[in-house]
Design brief:
With 454 residues, the chain is mostly helical. The protein has helices at residues 2-11, 24-30, 42-53, 60-73, 79-89, 97-109, 113-126, 131-143, 147-159, 166-178, 182-194, 201-213, 217-229, 236-248, 252-263, 270-282, 289-299, 307-319, 323-335, 344-356, 360-372, 378-391, 399-409, 414-426, 430-442. Helix 8 (131-143) packs antiparallel against helix 9 and helix 22 runs parallel beside helix 24 (414-426). The termini are far apart.
Length: 454
């Protein structure tokens, strides 16, 4: 019954609720002649009255949350409402740290810097200021692009032994992003760190990201060094992400400098080596084959090599034109007793590599080895082998047997059918090629009319 009655009272028009001597309308009338507010519009008066209606019943925190919720959902100009609320609250028993904190945050949200400066000065004299309150005030300064004032408040926080929180540092980063000054952000945070106000690790991570997005890769590397100098640990995952991002845009020189910096502080694992070798090989800048070989030899020295690293090393050596070395690494992968046996993808990489570099005989030898170990080639392996035979300048005598093997073990796809016909034509097995072509028609597989007529 009490709850039902309270809900009914809250739904009534404000004018019908009697709050005894602390009536909001009483205080509105009392302060209507204030010098700061000469006339109070009716909508402001109604809103203030509605918000102050809940002051006697709500706890301090409840009322603060109510005001914050109202400010976050309303769209009209709210500064007159906040100004009037200040006058009302100062003459009630609710004039305490919580309600004043709500008003302070409201002034900051309105970007009313004159009112905020006055109210904040009064607030600091009566109560201690928590980091989140400083954050609200500093954000207001930065929204007004007043960096000097924000820095002044940071120094005042230092004098009061209050450490800026992550949100405060994030506000400074956003300021430099907003004003398109990424290089200045690095210089600013470096100076603060040198003066005894180092930002946290999250802020430095954001700075590195901003520098990367702004294509200031040298400064990003400097930011990495500064982060380490300040004692912030960079995880292996962060290092790998940084290295990979640089590799993707072919900034391999900066990537290798960052990799050298990483090796000063931790030993790279198999995952890091995979990133380095893959991105070096795929870079738009041609990688020196001897440099790639040197990297692979270094990577082979680590105690545990994951399968992805084996694949990356074999593929990278193939890309830089070192098929013999790639085959050597493949043999090492088979010899290693670390549980990393060649996967289907590993076999496919080495087969494709040998076929691509004009070694169809070696490819067929490895293919036979693959089958002897009991593995089923499947569509992927068959397509790789047949496609490379079709592209080879040398005739492969086993091609007819290979085609028969495929036809008896599976129904080929359109691409594999076309590759088999090309391979048979190259080996002058025209009768067999016509037979496969008729089988292709019988199975209603799409026919490519741009096949080589020969």
């Amino acid at each position: 019954r009490v709850w039902t009655t309270w809900k009914m009272l809250r739904s009534l028009p404000v004018s019908r609720i009697n709050l005894r001597s602390t009536s909001p309308s009483h205080h509105l009338r009392k302060y209507s002649g204030s010098s700061s507010i000469q006339q109070i519009p009716s909508d402001v008066e109604n809103t203030v009255a509605k918000l102050t209606t809940f002051l006697p019943a709500d706890s301090d925190l409840q009322w603060k949350n109510r005001l914050v919720k109202y400010l976050n959902t309303t769209t009209p100009e709210v500064l007159p409402i906040v100004q009037q609320l200040e006058h009302v609250i100062k003459n009630t028993k609710k004039d305490n740290v919580m309600t004043n904190l709500a008003l302070l945050n409201a002034y900051a949200r309105c970007d009313a810097r004159e009112d905020l400066e006055r109210f904040f000065a009064e607030f600091k004299q009566k109560w201690s200021v928590m980091p989140d309150t400083w954050q609200s005030v500093i954000m207001c300064d930065l929204r007004a692009l007043d960096l000097d004032k924000a820095v002044e408040r940071i120094n005042e926080m230092k004098e009061r032994n209050i450490a800026p929180d992550g949100y405060t540092w994030n506000s400074f980063v956003n300021y430099f992003v907003k004003t398109a000054q990424p290089a200045e952000a690095f210089q600013f945070f470096s100076k603060l760190a040198d003066s005894g106000l180092p930002a946290d690790a999250i802020a430095w991570t954001q700075i590195k990201h901003v520098l990367f997005e702004s294509r200031l890769y040298d400064l990003e590397l400097e930011a990495i060094r500064k982060t380490i100098q300040l004692g912030h640990e960079i995880s292996e995952k962060e290092w790998n992400s940084t290295l990979h991002n640089l590799g993707l845009i072919s900034q391999t020189d900066i990537m290798m400098q960052a990799f050298a910096e990483m090796r000063k502080h931790m030993e790279p694992t198999s995952r890091t080596w995979t990133v380095i070798i893959s991105d070096m090989a795929k870079s738009n800048k041609r990688t020196d084959p001897n440099r790639m070989l040197q990297l692979v030899d270094e990577a082979l020295k680590i105690p545990h090599i994951e399968l992805e690293q084996w694949n990356a090393m074999i593929q990278a050596l193939g890309i830089v034109g070192k098929p013999e070395e790639a085959f050597r690494v493949f043999e090492k992968c088979q010899e290693r007793k670390s549980g990393s046996i060649p996967s289907l993808r590993t076999w496919n990489i080495i087969l494709d590599l040998l076929g691509k570099h004009g070694q169809p005989e070696a490819m067929m030898r490895i293919f036979q080895q693959f089958k002897e170990q009991g593995s089923n080639p499947g569509e992927v392996i068959y397509s790789t082998v047949v496609s490379r035979i079709a592209e080879s300048k040398n005739q492969v005598p086993q091609v007819e047997d290979l085609v028969d093997e495929i036809m008896t073990s599976m129904i080929p796809s359109e691409g594999l059918f076309n590759a088999m016909i090309r391979a048979l034509g190259l080996s002058k097995k025209t009768k067999k090629a016509h037979q496969i072509f008729r089988e292709m028609q019988r199975l209603n597989v799409k026919v490519l009319f741009n096949l080589n007529p020969s």
